[in-house]
Amino acid sequence: MFYQNLEKCRRYSRYEKYQHDSVSHQTCFIIPEYVNKEIVEKGTEQQRRSAWRNLILTEQLRGRRNVTGSMSAVFAVADKLHRTILDAQNAESLPGKLVRSEGGKPKGGRAVTESYDYSGDTYDFYKQVFDRNSVDGRGLRLDSTVHYGQDYNNAFWNGTQMVYGDGDGQIFNRFTSSLDVIGHELTHGVTQYEAALEYQDQPGALNESFSDVFGSLVKQYALKQTAEKADWLIGAGLFTRKIKGVALRSMKAPGTAYDDPTLGKDPQPGHMRDYVKTSSDNGGVHINSGIPNHAFYLTAIGIGGKAWEKAGKIWYITLRDRLQENSSFQDAANLSADVAGSLFGKDSKERKAVLKAWEDVGLPPKARK
Amino acid sequence: MKIYFERSGGFTGIPVSMTIDTSSLPTEEARIIQKMVEDSHFFELPPTPNKTSRAGAADYFQYQITIENSTRKHTVKSDDISIDPKLKPLVNLLVKNLQKWKQKK
Question: Would A245 be classed as within a structural domain?
Fold first, then answer.
């Protein structure tokens, strides 16, 4: 069956168990599967990408990769990195003008070079550490638009690509200057193709947290740092020298990253008792992410060594296999403890570190019945 | 014309806001704002954005603008993904002049 609205379809199939018969699975399509397949085979480049994305996104039955698996040869999905960098030329129209493709000459200025290099680093991290082939697991091309807007103090993921501003030079430097920012943005894509955490309230703060976690791990991996040596800062280097602050966020000490007369003080909590109820920022997704961020930091330190190896693996498997669109902080605590048990054993020091970390932020994990 | 403007979200999560009364601004600036409000058909814009266009998106700025003139008052919530192109010039102008106009009540 198919629905006009993919969101309605997902909700419908989630809350009302749909029937699996022995012949076929019911799944949600906004256009029938066979139409998408036709487009993938015969459409224009733009149409093919769009149809391909539809096919992947509608595979919300985890593990059901048989549709797109058989198509990957047709669509020439390669097991490798493919980047394009585009220039919005200080306008706000996307994607902008193509300035660099995969393997192209390193020219075009710092923003072009940084977005190219750092998306490569992020791709390499996911491939080497988790054997994940790009954001969608199937070699999705990584598109970045730079020089978006004028004095634009932001970077964002629009559901299809990354977008970076130059900053105003007063408060912020250009947003391509930090590897963890690029890792953060690309991880929003990974989340979109996996748990699809809704960008609101606790699921949204979890979404933000996973981006900070893997953004930080991308940086730690590139620098070959252990958990103890890492700075656990997000966006260090984004502020100009005029601002009193070391970074935008601290996973190690939420609430301490900045305190500036213009910007105010870092509002992040590090414990559930300080959870911020607000209607702005989609329910404070960039604020309350401090709590699960801190839980990850504590887990990584509790286990020791390189944070991506065990703590990162637990978090990745949790995001990929266990979390759902409306998962809460408590769900994340319960599920990551469960994953740690599956990976390392119920009485392992890894699982104990996860349990203690969530307890320390006010979310003691509850075992499944 | 009174304008309340708030921008939240974004990668940084740092909000900005201001309230201005155009009658306290220089004539030329007030005139420019007036024109942008008219050109955007502000009072006819939907109060909230279409949710589906933002599927998977993150770290975009969110905007809330309330404008009150002698006859009407209207609030529009929008964001970088779903913003009506007609509204962009006004939003960008307000962001650009935040520090400057913030002082004037």
Answer: yes
Do A248 and B80 make contact, defined as CB atoms within 8 angstroms? no
B15 contact residues in A (CB cutoff 8 A): 280-281
Name the pTM for this structure.
0.85
Q: What is the pLDDT of residues A142-189, one digit of tens each?
A: 999 999 999 999 999 999 999 999 999 999 999 999 999 999 999 999
Do A211 and A308 belong to one domain? yes
Burial class (CB in 10 A: 0-12, 13-18, 19+), A100: buried
- With CA atoms as reference, the chain A residue closest to B51 would be A7
User: Which is catalytic among the residues A59, A114, A185, A198?
Assistant: A185
B92 contacts A150? CB cut-off 8 A: yes
Residue A167's domain is classified under what CATH number? Answer: 3.10.170.10
Tell me, yes or no, whether A61 lies in a domain: yes
pLDDT in tens, B68-97: 999 999 999 999 999 999 999 999 999 999
Distance CA A46, CA A134 (A): 19
User: Across the interface, which of B57, B59, B81 has its CB nearest the CB of A154?
Assistant: B59
Rounded to the nearest integer, the mean pLDDT of chain A is: 87
| Domain coverage including residue A244 | 201-360
ipTM: 0.94
CA angle, residues A240, A246, A249, in degrees to nearest 5: 110
Query: Which tokens go with A120?
Result: 């490569």
Q: Is A271 a known active-site residue?
A: no
Residue A183 covered by a domain: no
In a domain, A195, yes or no: no
Confidence (pLDDT) at A41: 58
Q: Does A240 share its domain with A163? A: no
pLDDT at A21 over 60: no
Q: What is the pLDDT of residues B10-53, one digit of tens each?
A: 999 999 999 999 999 999 999 999 999 999 999 999 999 877 67
Q: Which of A281, A287, A288 to mutate to test the interface with B (most CBs of B within 10 A)?
A: A281
Token reading at A71: 């198509």
CB pairs under 8 A between A and B: 96
**B11·A156 Cβ contact <8 A:** yes
Token pair for residue B75? 């609030």
Active site residue A286: yes
Residues of B in contact with A6 (CB under 8 A): 52, 55
* List of chain B residues whose C-beta atoms are within 8 Å of the C-beta of residue A212: none
Please spell the DSSP secondary structure of A219-266, one letter per residue.
Answer: HHHHHT--TTT---EESTTTB-TTSSBS-SEESSSTT-SBEETTTEE-
